[in-house]
Specification:
The protein has about 375 residues and is α/β, with parallel strands linked by helices. About 45% of the residues lie in helices and about 20% in strands. The model has no long low-confidence stretch (mean pLDDT about 95). It starts with a strand and ends with a helix. The chain has two domains: about 170 residues, Rossmann fold (3-Layer(aba) Sandwich); about 190 residues, Dehydroquinate synthase-like - alpha domain (Dehydroquinate synthase-like, alpha domain, Up-down Bundle), CATH 1.20.1090.
């Protein structure tokens, strides 16, 4: 088991990474008690994950007053109304401020459970047990919680840190290929923002990741979590450098919203967004076309798209531009983007040519 730490003073917490961690904690139940305040537990999962791992998770918390909430599976359900079953369970059982919510699932479950924990009785504890690669390397770490709105992704939410993260790599064996690739998109992001050697490692080891090699997955998860933990510790509430983690996301969130939540997976949209960021960076002369092609090659090796899928819905330049202008990274009316000036070196800027941005949007739009 690998243990990393997110250093946030009194809100610090560990990330546990390893194979069969659910069994490990089940056999050492005293370890989990360190991260639970009272005697009440609500496990939140979805219809896909619950049949696979809920029974074991219930056993882990068998000594507590424990309830479970099973949500429908899919990004389309990540709404304000979607968290009401969690709140209803808490209210109906009169759970107090010492209740701990447990998010058992992917990024959608984690975001919704964390947001419910943030707002119930003005904040209660929660634990992340991410079961997808995307959640293990990104969304379960850092305390971003929230839900979507028809006009924008993750626009309603809160920063609320978990008590711990248990990333059991064994759960990735039941992940479908498309979801696995979606998670690899976030791994590629970490390589592009600050580590060229990791980018080259991914080029050489992508087959191992796609084929679910345990050592390769553990290395990629550890590297990604280390990077995110360090960035979050330096800028917990995204007042500055933490925004570097949004490489590909401003473009990607616009794509997700335009196509309809769930039609394009988050990692798929981020992959396209990173290609769009590379395209805009080339137009400014910050990277050359050879670097752009290496980025596209790696994304393709991960079985990820590099163009907006035209068969889902026609997406215009105007729609993409409007949605990007409503993004969370807009400050004082200025759109900030994460762009690239070398492999493993990205930067945040509002000083880009709007005409060149329009050209990038025209290249990738489908209408």
């Amino acid at each position: 088991m690998i243990t990393l730490n997110v250093d946030l003073d009194e809100r610090s917490y560990p990330i546990f990474i390893g194979d069969n961690l659910l069994n490990y904690f089940l056999n050492n139940k005293n370890l989990i008690s360190d991260y639970i305040k009272g005697k009440q537990i609500v496990i939140v999962s979805n219809e896909t994950i619950a049949p696979l791992y809920l029974k074991k998770t219930l056993e882990l918390f068998s000594s507590y007053q424990c309830k479970s909430v099973i949500l429908p599976d899919g990004e389309i359900y990540k709404t304000y109304d979607g968290i009401l079953p969690i709140i209803n369970c808490l209210m109906e059982n009169q759970f107090d401020r010492h209740v701990t919510l447990v998010a058992l699932g992917g990024g959608v479950v984690g975001d919704m459970t964390g947001f419910a924990a943030a707002i119930y009785r003005r904040g209660v504890n929660f634990i992340q047990i991410p079961t997808t690669l995307l959640a293990q390397v990104d969304s379960s770490v850092g305390g971003k919680t929230g839900v979507n709105h028809p006009l924008g992704k993750n626009m309603i939410g809160s920063f609320h840190q978990p008590q711990c993260v248990i990333a059991d790599t064994n759960t990735l064996k039941t992940l479908d290929d498309r979801q696995l690739s979606s998670g690899i998109a976030e791994v590629i992001k970490y390589a592009l923002i600050n580590n060229a050697s990791f980018f080259n490692w991914l080029l050489n080891n992508m087959d191992a990741l796609i084929n679910r090699d345990a050592d390769a997955l553990a290395y990629a998860i550890k590297f990604s979590c280390q990077d995110k933990a360090a960035i979050v510790a330096a800028d917990e509430k995204e007042q500055g450098q933490r925004a570097i983690l949004n490489l590909g996301h401003t473009f990607g969130h616009a794509i997700e919203t335009a196509l309809g939540y769930g039609n394009c997976l988050h990692g798929e949209a981020v992959a396209i967004g990173m290609v769009m960021a590379a395209d805009l960076s080339v137009r400014h002369g910050w990277i050359d076309s050879d670097t752009q092609q290496k980025i596209i090659e790696l994304i393709k090796l991960a079985s990820l798209p590099v163009q907006i899928p035209a068969e889902e819905k026609q997406v215009s330049v105007q729609e993409l531009s409007r949605l990007m202008q409503g993004d969370k990274k807009v400050l004082d009316g200025q759109l900030h983007l994460v762009l690239i000036n070398a492999l493993g070196n990205s930067f945040i800027t509002s000083e880009f040519d709007r005409t060149k941005l329009e050209q990038t949007l025209e290249t990738f739009s489908t209408k």
